[in-house]
Amino acid sequence: MAYHSFLLEPISCHAWNKDRTQIALCPNNHDVHIYKKNGASWNKIHVLKEHNGQVTGIGWAPESNRIVTCGTDRNAYVWTLKADVWKPTLVILRINRAARCVQWSPKENKFAVGSGSRLISICYFEQENDWWVCKHIKKPIRSTILSLDWHPNNVLLAAGSSDFKCRIFSAYIKEVEEKPAPTPWGSKMPFGEVMFESSGTSGWVHGVTFSASGNRVAWASHDSTVAVAEGGKTPVITALCSETLPLLCVMFITENSLVAAGHDCYPVLFVYDAAKRTISFGGKLDVPKQSAQRGMTARERFQNLDKKATTETKEIVLESLHKNSISEISILEGGKTKCAKFCTTGMDGGMVIWDVKTLESAMKDLKIV
Amino acid sequence: MRLAHRVKLIIEISATVLPLTPPGTGNLMDALQAVLKNPPINTKNQNVKERAEALVLKVLSSFKSSDIEKAVQSLDKNDVDLLMKYIYKGFERPSDNNSAFLLQWHEKALSAGGVGSIVRVLTARKTV
Hints:
The structure holds two protein chains of two kinds.
Chain A: E1 2-5, E2 13-16, E3 22-26, E4 31-38, E5 41-49, E6 55-60, E7 66-71, E8 76-82, E9 85-91, E10 99-104, E11 110-115, E12 120-126, E13 131-137, E14 145-150, E15 156-161, E16 166-170, E17 194-197, E18 205-210, E19 216-221, E20 225-230, E21 236-241, E22 247-252, E23 257-262, E24 268-273, E25 278-284, H1 298-308, E26 326-333, E27 341-346, E28 350-355, H2 356-362
Antiparallel strand pairs in A: 1-28, 2-3, 3-4, 4-5, 6-7, 7-8, 8-9, 10-11, 11-12, 12-13, 14-15, 15-16, 16-17, 18-19, 19-20, 20-21, 22-23, 23-24, 24-25, 26-27, 27-28
Chain B: H1 3-17, H2 28-35, H3 46-62, H4 65-73, H5 77-91, H6 99-123
Pfam family, one (chain A): WD40
GO molecular function (chain A): actin filament binding
InterPro entries (chain A): ARPC1 (IPR017383), WD40/YVTN_repeat-like_dom_sf (IPR015943), WD40_repeat_dom_sf (IPR036322), WD40_rpt (IPR001680)
């Protein structure tokens, strides 16, 4: 598990390029830094300066090699690489609050921006005017959109919002694509249609993810729960109340397993059993260094008892690799069907690349189905 | 739940709890289960909520310190969350005789439910 500390500032968001040699990240300011992998170290090769506010979301389209960034200045820019320089194109989102998250669609002909204006902007390129146009999805969103994820069919979009709901919308744009085939979430998909709305969990929905097939959606919400919904005539929702602090990001790594991470600073595995309709806690995915267990003197023991009313010998030191909350997970290899490597970045300015095979062998009873 | 029904439920539960005033022990585990059933979450009537809270605190205070852990183990996940909600409601009005036992209950409930149960107390829209 390679831990690399980029800077001391939190990493607001990150995105990888297609061959995973370059990473674009925002060090909690108005710029985007692009680092290139050089053996074991990372060199900063580009700085993208255009935003007037903190950059809150970065998306790097693997095939077309375009970067989309959105920020608190209510703008989004699409960057294209021309002669080793990234050139921005402004996209007018028509929002009056900060943009919070952005995601390229699987076919890379559209992207979605979630914002504090209680709407999602779906932007697509109009050839005649050589301009990015955006359409809004407003109803029935009541608060900020915190996270987005596209369905593999390029039309459905899952959105997690701070109005305590995870919804699946249709983002079908007739100008750029054909009518989609029916899915378990519904067959009629006009633009802006709500195909699914979650219930049963409360708390802001921080992270949403579709499974590789698109038949399942999982979300992590602020009341320390993780829930999975299976599409169908009546969607089946299963939720697990976890004993940890709230999770901020969640990602399917196989059709049945989810990796989630959040304020507890280590990724956690959950396994979803469709037959039994349960989610179970799979294990804590962290390999902490074994600190030497020194014995306690009698004096220390009494001091502890006096000050903290506890006789435990554990020291209050964070043993995980990340030293602060993890805010984003991205898949590096293997896709969502059989992820082999994933990456986490957090508020400690560090990035960790996790290797699934190494984790499986390190933790004996870890089972990734 | 309708107000009349809810008040009737509270009277029923009081009937099981009142015989528990010391020195009689009665069946404390059953009382705990009974008092955590059907919490007044959806009602807007403050009176009902206060009566329910008083009842729960009464049951919690009649437990011996050594029995608390066993009692918490006998509850399922949702009940532990509900117990945490009542404990925090009890913290809101500290008095000389309730802080000590509430803190003991809190410690045991925390080891059963983890910090997640406290987060759920803080994020719950409908409180007990």
